[in-house]
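During the no-cost extension, the postdoctoral fellow (Dr. R.K.) reprocessed legacy sequence entries with the updated structure-token encoder. One reprocessed record is reproduced below for audit purposes.
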Amino acid sequence: MHRTMAEPGWRELYKPKLVTVLREGYGLRDLRADLVAGLTVAIVALPLSMAIAIASGVTPDRGLYTAIVGGFLVSLLGGSRFQIGGPAGAFIVLVAASVERLGVGGMALAVILSGLILMTIGALRLGTFIKYIPYPVTVGFTAGIAVIIAASQARDLLGLTLPGKEPGPFVPKLLALGQALPTLNPAALGTAVATIALIVLLRRWRPQWPVLLIAVAAASVVAALAHLPVETIGTRFGGIPRSLPAPHLPPVSPDLVLAVLPDAVAFALLGAIESLLSAVVADGMTGRRHRANAELVAQGVANIASALCGGICVTGTIARTATNVRAGARGPVSGMAHAVFLALFMAVAAPLASYIPLPALAAVLAIVAWNMAEKHAFGLLLRASWGDAAVLLSTFLLTVLRDLTLGIVVGFATGSLLFIHRMAGTLRIEGGIPLVAPDVADRAGPLPDQPQTRDDDILVFRLSGAFFFGAAAGVSALFDRIAARPRAYVLDLTAVPLLDSTAVTVIDGLAAKARKQGAVVAIALADPEARRLLLTQGLKPPRVHVGRTLDQALVRARRALGRPGDQPDTDHEAA
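Re-encoded structure tokens follow.
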């Protein structure tokens, strides 16, 4: 009798981590630690959220709405203790392209639909499948996004003046920026360089300080006091409001839903990958374990709410989540507190945001892009193997030159084909099967001897490794080339961990060949599931005889030939 551990129920799978933390016992000391961690993360998120929104082609306040509304709900409902939700640099490319093509309303509708898709993925318990994204694909699209983010910030970093709208595609963007180089603004470049230098120096000297906020604040003070001729949030966007807007639906129509659906799928796919990667990072730092499907449902709710309140895409953010852990967070309350602190900052200090120079925010994103590009991992994968390098480069180049979705799809497909190729190469056939000579060139020399394992006209050979569709063609060709005409074929598949329907079809072909010769086929196969698969496809006595061990298969082969076996047959024939 087989005993299996009871699978967790629906309530356990989708229970927010906040409930778990509160039930474990949550005291005043925990609350104090979470408030400190939340304040620390909010200080980091304040300039970053505005910078990401601007780079995404929307106003800076939308980045704050995303961090406040989305960040609060991710922590309230999510399946990770330490996840911090908000706008992420990885979405800059997708959101900017969506805004350019569909407008802000169309982008908001795509975010709402992506939230519904994420909730569906979580409800169907598909969150665990996200881990099957190959590592070279993750590194490739992350590096590609970093390159695109850096290119998108060149205009503000250098203070360039473009005659028209900045192109979206990578190559036309570089050409337009190159043509605009004569308009370079030394004040903007100086502000950006000084901001980057201050961030780098402070991270080395005082890494525990809120480096990004200090650098942006210092740049704002210097630009205002020196009256530097640089663009600011106030000159380009007119400042930011003090409060959240009332929830409202974007325009909806059947045609618009169909138009935004590809963007919604891309948002959901990237959101699932980013949020679960971030949760895995938090687990690695804390020794905890997140609930993947609960996290995806929470991400879906957060995206819907963010779009209704004027925000953009929400996902788990790796850097802010790591900051939350390092700041001593005890649970999801820190993420909720981070959202509340951001709302207070916006209510109190919104007028001051008008003085922030855009080159300083561009410098912040340049640092983000540099950190996003996993340069060491990229180099290691290039040297690891030709297959990993092919997956990495195809994902990276397509992400940069075409779009992120195509890069992930092609990278995943390439990685899957590489996996099939490698798995097919693990199948080994032993037993010295006598083969028909292959076609060779004239005067190519004699063929090597083909050893064989035979006993009383019984040909025995052993397969080890995965026997599936990727390896089936090679095994089928081998069966067709068997030169011997034994009275019985015995296949030892006890070392085959995987057998699929294509492999069973190949075995059926061997059975058909044996029947024409008046021979029998016996199989040694211990896996009950594989034995059931054989039965399902009609491979049962007298067509094929199946035993659990090689000895049992030999006994059955001899019995089918009218020769009693040397050992008693204790296993019952499959029926």
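The first helix runs from residue 10 to 14. Residues 28-385 form one domain. The remaining legacy entries will be reprocessed before the final report is submitted.
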